[in-house]
Amino acid sequence: MAKKSFEFDTRYSNVEQSLEERKNRIKTICFKTCSKCGETKYIFKFSLDKRNLDGRTNVCKACRSREGLNYYYQNQSKILIQGKEYRDNHKKNRNIYNEKYREDHKEQLKKNAKKWYKKNKKRIKKRNLKYYQENLEACQIRRGLWIEKNRERIREYNREYKRKHKILKAVIQEGGNE
């Protein structure tokens, strides 16, 4: 037996109506009360948690942050020791990961280093000057070794420098004679 068209209309309208009700329910949930501080706050002040019916945690982000800080300061030595143990036990894995990260993000790291250098130029020069003054003998020895290793390079640089300046002098003298 064929169904009549009005039966389809009522079923369709019921589904449509339930969808509309669901949308309205979702729109009205824009505030939530924190179970820690008791304040009513906007829903986006709570972290996502799909285990709860409304999809948010019961404690606001600010309270969770405070809890985390309190825990850290109360257990600081324990946390630092655990971190050191982890770093020591997983040194190879961390090195492999860091190497791969540096390869994959070479350009970005280069940009960051350049930006940091420009931002801290005075501080770097100050630090280097301080190191040079404190380790003057070692720096002079290192400089002497570099000069010995790179004699040919220095000679080539000096030849090029003299050649360029000879040309410049000639051009300047010609300009002055005219």
Automatic annotation (TrEMBL):
This is Uncharacterized protein. It comes from marine sediment metagenome.
